[in-house]
Amino acid sequence: MKSAESVVGVILAGGKSSRMGGGDKCLLPLAGRPVLASVIARLRPQVSDIVINANGEPARFANFGLPVVGDSVTGFAGPLAGVHAGLEWVKVNRPDAHYVVSVASDTPFIPDNLVQRFLSEVNHSGFLVAASAEGLHPVIGLWTVAMGPDLQQWLEQGNHKVTAFAKQRGAVEVFFEPVKVEGRLIDPFFNINRPEELDLASALLEHQPR
């Protein structure tokens, strides 16, 4: 099995957050710190490096001390463009890395064995996506760095759907069980889209160690 040392984490923070009133929802406070800080804390032990994908002024993420890369594909092309940006960063800055694991910036309960599970299931294509009882989560995935040109071509043809790309490229689905937080079982890919979901996540994380 490949080592986590060969995996770079890419946190996708380029969404428009329209249901949260716009702006960077990953910078909203969650149990005393930004949502993004919780995602970083869950991901950091699992990968060699972390990169934030976000467009606009990168200085707003300066407190996290991580590289920030914007989309190289013009127009708002969604999370696939963010994955592509991460793959391009890895190719230049971590040429020894084989994989990128992508996660959304609003998923504070991602499993602490996410990368380990992906690597244990990796097949010859090296393209896997997460699934849970709530369904498929194609934004949460393991990608080979070599997929960069293929993904760029897909985007330049005007295709932006993550699920469609995963289906066409034969991505393998990896199922994850719920995670237990403060005695409650939560979907591991619970994401914060609405104020009430932020409130729920805050209540669950209030007594968690940081």
How would you sum up this structure, described in words?
The chain is α/β, with parallel strands linked by helices. It is built from six helices and eleven strands. The strands form three sheets. It has a seven-stranded mixed sheet, with helices on both faces. Helix 2 runs antiparallel to helix 4. The radius of gyration is 16 Å and the shape is globular.
What characteristics describe this protein?
210 residues; seven-stranded mixed beta sheet; two-stranded antiparallel sheet
In short:
With 210 residues, the chain is α/β, with parallel strands linked by helices. The protein contains six helices and eleven strands.
Instruction: Briefly note the CATH topology name.
Output: Spore Coat Polysaccharide Biosynthesis Protein SpsA, Chain A
Q: Widest sheet: strand order?
A: 5-4-1-6-8-7-9
Strand content: 15-25%
Order of helices and strands: EEEHEEHEHEEHHEEEH
Provide the number of structural domains: 1
Shape: globular
Mean pLDDT: 90
List how many beta strands DSSP finds. Answer: 11
H/I helix tally: 6
Compute the CA-based radius of gyration: 16 Å
The CATH architecture classification is Alpha-Beta Complex
Instruction: Determine the fraction of residues in helical runs and give it as a percent range.
Output: 25-40%
CATH class: Alpha Beta
The biggest sheet, with number of strands, parallel, antiparallel or mixed sense and barrel status, is: 7 strands, mixed
* Fourth-tier CATH superfamily name: Spore Coat Polysaccharide Biosynthesis Protein SpsA, Chain A
Residue windows where pLDDT falls under 50 for at least 5 positions: 17-21
Would you tell me the structural class of the helices and strands?
Answer: alpha/beta
